[in-house]
UniProtKB/TrEMBL annotation:
This is Serine/threonine protein kinase. Residues 284-299 have a biased composition (Polar residues). Residues 268-304 are annotated as: Disordered. Residues 27-271 form the Protein kinase domain.
C-alpha cells in the first residue's frame, strides 16, 4: 500500500544523487512522492527532465512491477500507467538498492480534482477508469490497490491515469497490496482473490469516497447495511446508487458492464427539459412615455436648429454679394 501507515524503507533528502550501477545514468532527487511496504517513489531530475523513480531493497518487487509496466505498454489504446524508462541498481554505502525509472505523470489526484472542479466530473472520469480497467482485465491483470491517491487526472483535456502499479496482480492470485477502505475483505469479508470483481468493488468505494472525502471507519462488522446507509445519505450518489450497490455485491461480470450501468444512471438522472416555444420577433417597445416624448422633442429641436443654421448661411451670403456689388458700382463711378 502506498500510504503512510508503513515504515519508510528509505529516507533520502532532496539533492541526493542516484547513480545507476549498470547504465551509469544520474538522477537527482527533488522530493518524495509516496511510499509503501514495497518501496518509495521520488520525483527526480534526469537527463530528460522530471521523472519518477521507485526504489526498493526487494529485487522481486521491482521485477514484478517492471513486468506489469511492460505488459501495460503492449495494451492497445491510451496509456494505462506510466511509461517505463529504465531499470538499474544503485550501490549506496555497501547496500544494493534496486530501482526503476518511469514517466512522471503530472496532474491532480482524483479526490482533489473532484473537490476543485465539482462532483459533476465524477461520472465521466469513472467511466474512463472503467474503460481502462476493462483493458487491464482482458490482459489478465487486476489493479488491486485502487484508490483516489493512485489515480491522477491530467489535462486539459482531462484524462484519468493509473499510477503506482505495486498492487497489480495476475488474475487468480492473492491480492498483493490493498487499502482497507477500498478492500472487499475489510467491508464484507469477500475474497481477496485477484479478479475483476475485486477492482469493481474498489471502484464502488471510490465513488463513495468522493462523496465522503474524509472517509469513515466501519462500525461493528462493517457490512453492506452500513454502506447502503452511507450511499443513501448523500444526494450526490443517488444517480450512481444502483451501479455502486451492484459493484459492492459483485453483480457485474466485467468493468464494461459497470460502465454501461453507470452511464445509464447518468442519462436517466438528467432533468427533462420542456421544449422552448419559438420566440416572437418584435420591435422593442419602450414602456416609458417620458423617454418617448424626450426623444421626439430632441428630434424636433434638431430639425429646428438645422433650419435656423441654413437661414443664417443664406443671409450671410446675400450680404457678402450685396457688399461686393456696392463696391463694384462705387469703383465704376470713381
Amino acid at each position: 500500500m502506498m500510504n503512510n501507515t508503513s515504515k519508510k524503507p528509505f529516507n533520502f533528502p532532496p539533492g541526493t544523487v542516484v547513480r545507476g550501477k549498470w547504465y551509469k545514468q544520474i538522477y537527482t532527487i527533488v522530493k518524495e512522492l509516496g511510499y509503501g511496504a514495497n518501496g518509495i517513489v521520488y520525483l527526480v531530475q534526469g537527463t530528460s527532465g522530471y521523472q519518477a523513480l521507485k526504489m526498493s531493497d526487494s529485487n522481486v518487487s521491482i521485477t514484478s512491477e517492471v513486468n506489469v509496466l511492460k505488459s501495460f505498454s503492449k495494451v492497445q489504446g491510451a496509456p494505462l500507467g506510466p511509461k517505463l524508462l529504465a531499470v538499474d541498481d544503485w550501490e549506496y554505502r555497501g547496500q544494493k538498492i534496486h530501482f526503476y525509472v518511469m514517466e512522471y505523470i503530472q496532474g491532480t489526484d482524483l479526490l482533489s480534482f473532484v473537490q476543485s472542479k465539482g462532483f459533476s466530473w465524477t461520472g465521466v472520469l469513472i467511466a474512463q477508469l472503467l474503460t481502462d480497467l476493462e483493458r487491464i482485465h482482458k490482459e489478465g491483470w487486476v489493479f488491486g490497490d485502487l484508490k483516489p491517491e493512485n489515480l491522477i487526472v491530467t489535462g486539459p483535456p482531462y484524462r484519468i491515469r493509473c499510477i503506482d502499479v505495486g498492487g497489480t496482480t495476475i488474475n487468480g492470485r492473492a491480492i498483493k497490496e490493498f487499502t482497507e477502505f477500498f478492500d472487499r475483505g475489510y467491508w464484507v469479508g469477500g475474497s481477496r482473490r485477484a479478479e475483476p470483481s475485486y477492482d469493481l468493488f474498489s471502484v464502488g468505494m471510490i465513488l463513495i469516497n468522493l462523496a465522503y472525502p474524509g472517509r469513515f471507519t466501519k462500525s461493528g462488522n462493517g457490512n453492506m447495511q452500513q454502506l447502503r446507509k452511507a450511499i443513501g445519505s448523500k444526494d450526490q450518489l443517488k444517480k450512481f446508487e444502483g451501479s455502486i450497490l451492484d459493484a459492492l455485491e459483485g453483480k457485474f461480470q466485467s468493468a464494461s458492464d459497470m460502465r454501461i450501468s453507470l452511464l445509464n444512471g447518468l442519462s436517466h438522472s438528467q432533468p427533462v427539459q420542456q421544449p422552448k416555444s419559438k420566440p416572437k420577433v418584435s420591435r422593442p417597445v419602450s414602456t416609458s412615455p417620458h423617454v418617448n416624448s424626450s426623444a421626439t422633442h430632441s428630434r424636433y429641436q434638431n430639425h429646428r436648429n438645422k433650419k435656423s443654421s441654413h437661414f443664417l448661411e443664406t443671409v450671410l451670403v446675400v450680404m457678402i454679394v450685396s457688399l461686393l456689388y456696392v463696391l463694384y458700382i462705387y469703383g465704376e463711378l470713381m
